[in-house]
Design brief:
Four copies of one chain form a homotetramer. The first copy, chain A, contains 13 helices and 15 strands. Chain A has helices at about 15-25, 40-50, 60-65, 75-90, 105-115, 130-140, 165-170, 170-175, 175-190, 205-210, 280, 285-300, 310-325, and strands spanning about 5-10, 30-35, 55, 70-75, 95, 120-125, 150-155, 190-200, 215-220, 225-230, 240-245, 250-255, 260-265, 270, 330. In chain A, the strands form three sheets. Chain A has a seven-stranded mixed β-sheet. A six-stranded parallel β-sheet of chain A has the order 3-2-1-4-5-6, with helices on both faces. The first copy, chain A, has a two-stranded antiparallel sheet with strand order 13-14. In chain A, helix 1 packs across helix 12 and helix 9 (about 175-190) crosses helix 13 (about 310-325). Chain A is globular and about 55 Å long. Chains in contact: A-B, A-C, A-D, B-C, B-D, C-D.
Amino acid sequence: MGGTLKFGLIGAGRIGRLHAENIVRHIPEAELIWVADVVEEAAAKLARELGVVRWGKDYEAVLDDPEVDAVLICTSTDTHARIIRDAAAAGKHIFCEKPLALDLGEIDRALEAVEKAGVILQVGFHRRFDPNFRRLKEMLAEGTIGRPWLLKITSYDPAPPPLSYVKVSGGIFLDMTIHDFDMARFLLGEVEEVYAAGSVLVDPEIGVAGDVDTAVVTLVFESGALGVITNCRKASYGHDQRIEVLGEKGGLFAENPLPHTALFADEGGYRSAPLHYFFMERYREAYIAEMKAFVEAVREGKVPPVTGRDGKIPVVMGYAAKRSLKERRPVKLSEITG
Amino acid sequence: MGGTLKFGLIGAGRIGRLHAENIVRHIPEAELIWVADVVEEAAAKLARELGVVRWGKDYEAVLDDPEVDAVLICTSTDTHARIIRDAAAAGKHIFCEKPLALDLGEIDRALEAVEKAGVILQVGFHRRFDPNFRRLKEMLAEGTIGRPWLLKITSYDPAPPPLSYVKVSGGIFLDMTIHDFDMARFLLGEVEEVYAAGSVLVDPEIGVAGDVDTAVVTLVFESGALGVITNCRKASYGHDQRIEVLGEKGGLFAENPLPHTALFADEGGYRSAPLHYFFMERYREAYIAEMKAFVEAVREGKVPPVTGRDGKIPVVMGYAAKRSLKERRPVKLSEITG
Amino acid sequence: MGGTLKFGLIGAGRIGRLHAENIVRHIPEAELIWVADVVEEAAAKLARELGVVRWGKDYEAVLDDPEVDAVLICTSTDTHARIIRDAAAAGKHIFCEKPLALDLGEIDRALEAVEKAGVILQVGFHRRFDPNFRRLKEMLAEGTIGRPWLLKITSYDPAPPPLSYVKVSGGIFLDMTIHDFDMARFLLGEVEEVYAAGSVLVDPEIGVAGDVDTAVVTLVFESGALGVITNCRKASYGHDQRIEVLGEKGGLFAENPLPHTALFADEGGYRSAPLHYFFMERYREAYIAEMKAFVEAVREGKVPPVTGRDGKIPVVMGYAAKRSLKERRPVKLSEITG
Amino acid sequence: MGGTLKFGLIGAGRIGRLHAENIVRHIPEAELIWVADVVEEAAAKLARELGVVRWGKDYEAVLDDPEVDAVLICTSTDTHARIIRDAAAAGKHIFCEKPLALDLGEIDRALEAVEKAGVILQVGFHRRFDPNFRRLKEMLAEGTIGRPWLLKITSYDPAPPPLSYVKVSGGIFLDMTIHDFDMARFLLGEVEEVYAAGSVLVDPEIGVAGDVDTAVVTLVFESGALGVITNCRKASYGHDQRIEVLGEKGGLFAENPLPHTALFADEGGYRSAPLHYFFMERYREAYIAEMKAFVEAVREGKVPPVTGRDGKIPVVMGYAAKRSLKERRPVKLSEITG
């Protein structure tokens, strides 16, 4: 065949393993040939499981391998920008998990390196590839409801992340709402201004750590359309992720998919399944689809469906939301600069 | 106006009271001016509550009253045919609860009397007036699914009737399935043959009384279409009444309406309301609509939406089902004669 | 009986007629004995239709009639406060449509008059009586989801009101969102602060009239819980009115009731009924229930379920939202004074 | 690892390819090492695509290969029994597509050969592995609804098979209803008697070929419970497959899963996705799960979840249904013998 895309994985944690397995099982056009992780054992273990013969501690070895066509960056956020720059310099195509970085200057330098090297960079906003949201986006693009007026994104996690993560993640707007910011842009285009209200309701320790756990973020799009994102770190009934768009000719709704369709009825009423609890189950198909899209973009030299700029703007929106919450006023994206 | 239709109610039990209240509250074109019941106190009580000044024990007094335009026959089944004949002879229009009678000869004599007198007779198959089934019927009539091929009627009661009733009702096919037989004809036209399977599962006493409590009845329509009715005397989750029609161009479904739309979600899933338990709540609107239709038919001299023949055929079908169950073979309606 | 509550209706327009019919048909404990309207013919017409013998042009005649126990104020908003004061002075109990008035000083004077007279005043926030929202409220009160964290109210009208109305209504926050403000308080208690974003998307003429037609209003409750109301003057698919509450133990959802449950399926998928278009159909049961509650409150001398204060605070919230939109900042309710 | 289960595929058509791909992609505990097909090119093509190095025309070569642990029999029905006997004689474990054979004597001889050889045989009733039906089965087994009374299986294909297939398939009861017969036994245990009504409504050519295209099959279980299967060769809205069970404590329902959850609403109502059209999409997960179960049964020496007897009885039921339709009477399974 010759033409399979050869991947090196950098970062063999939970999300790295997910992508690696998807490549091996679901993408015949690609191969995984390298696994690197700062914890060498983790790299070795995953490599063995997937029948990959090259592994090691240092990502530089992946970049030095001339057989590697593309890297998957699944390391901790603070290393993303540097690895992107190095990978670009090595002429490797890049799939990088979100966020690109927490520092906007770092993001800009990474994007410049990518542009200069002429490699393809795709950022891991997997929700764009969810079949339900994708269908909604298609119907929107087909003009089904005409001009969109009002976007509503519901996005609740089943349980808060560990406090240790909350302390370094950049806060709810940069680690959780960032997905919704991306979705907002994906569906209705650029946002001009955000207003964020937040409260500590789920766990007071989150407040002690300087963050909120429940938030309502109002968006004003450049088109004049409005949007609202509701977030909460905990929904006991599972990973609640829904989207609605009201437009001049009707409404579009993407509901939660349920794990199964079985119902039980008795005197107490009808009971259906709870939602998927874990994001990896909820977005199983989306993760496969995003990787297929990356492979296709690289193989065909196309613009990837989530560009570097798409990786940057949601970070800008996260900072705007943080400033809005702090200063208790709407904040324009144009106020935020690296 | 002068033209309100003046009703005399014969039989002030549960269903009589329901119709009486509907006339008083919901049908400005009609009035209730007489209440008769063999239990005179029952007549008096209902009359007082509804501000009706004439009441008594004997239905003949109602028929003798020249001001009465129409009678509502809500007495026990064994009296229906006689009262119909007498009412027809007195020139009164007639709304009679189902079944017309358990004896086909009696039904024929009653219908002859009605025809001879030229009065209007409507039989109380209220489900035809349910807004959900009505909408399904309309869509069918509009050709939405083209030629219908397969009808499925689900019809479960929330709890069995008293055994005393089971013993005199004529059995499940004549007291319960009769509604579904009517619905089948209403939707897909005449039935040629029925096959009934039955079992005693809910309560062995029902078996002792000579009846079954769970049944599957297969219908072959004259058009060649097939149908199936599933019945059970008990569904712990409420009065489950659904209809489906598969046709050449698609499917039509009338689902159960729920008492309210509130849902609760937690780790165990989503829970909605149980079904309406009681048929009077489930079919509240249908009972009003059928009486409005009768009033309209009388006032405008139109054929009523449920004729005497519509009252007879489901009884024939009930006997065919009984014979089928007993003789363990499909039975043609043409085999059943008074 | 002697004990029926005798009503005089003041204002025989659309909503007045609705209440009048409900009293006559659905509330045996009440009677309608007077109809007044500045357009005398309108009063006469409605009175005739409902069999009411007293009618006239001047509401003072209603107040002067010693047989009248209670008045229904269904006139234009600018007259509410004055009629309330006069009715209170005449010792009549009062059911008044919302809003009490657009001037907070007027509201205060009206409420003082009511208090001084010791009469009962109920304000017409009918949505509290919708069976779906009511069930949600009950489950919330029963602690089903524990402490509530996040309230979402979706409230879209099927089509904008006439521009002439937009110009005098006080704007979207005082004529439309006011219902949602009431619902927010009904469900989660007092609100401390609002932030409103708005846009003119449905009809530029609404913008010319100085109003917005699409809005997102963020609420901060005194409890720390957050809320968001989304409003639009037009949803082509009908009167979309939904509520969600996320709490520590789960979620509650009140979905839109559909006019019927019939579905049609073909190659294009499943199609269900559109929403109720008209608020009078959507809230038919709620209007009856609110009037029953008023009658019960008066007859039993109880605090009515929607008090004068409940009538005032949503107006305060409306002004806070208007100021927030204008000054582009969150506004505390305490900033708003008559 | 050493322990992967090595498969030889016999029959590289549509369903053979499906199983082959599932083994390669989704079952790390198994390997595909042989592909045989009477059309050698088909075998070669599939082998190449999946990286399998051994292929050929004759299934005997697969059986002769000592490395092969198990065979997948995906050939035409008339060859199943012979290949099973040969495979058993060769000591290979066997996964065989349904039906085992159309001749009951052939089935018995094949099952005897399997038993004598002590190999594991699993029959391809994939619907048992559908996550929705599986969940229903689990709830039933957990006693959620107590004793089951009434089973309803809806099973419509999106379009009729080619007439050439109809002529050799054994008819609707042996090629289509057979899945529903298996499901009935899986859920409620053994069936004592069947009654079948059938009609030619979809395509008169099916009637000319001696078959019906629409059927209602009543089941009487040994437990006394009743069941009904409704079948149609064509449902324009897709592959409609639903199950309901009514029991003493409630009802269980397994609804159709939809391809996506996006909805569109306008004046015409709400529209959801059509059903999956193709059974391979509808049952994608079920096919993987059944093969995993087979691999697990072989590796752990367990009784497979669908035994040879489970493969035989539905064929018996198919013949009982055919006889019932022909003789127009209920037929006991005990009447059917090879």
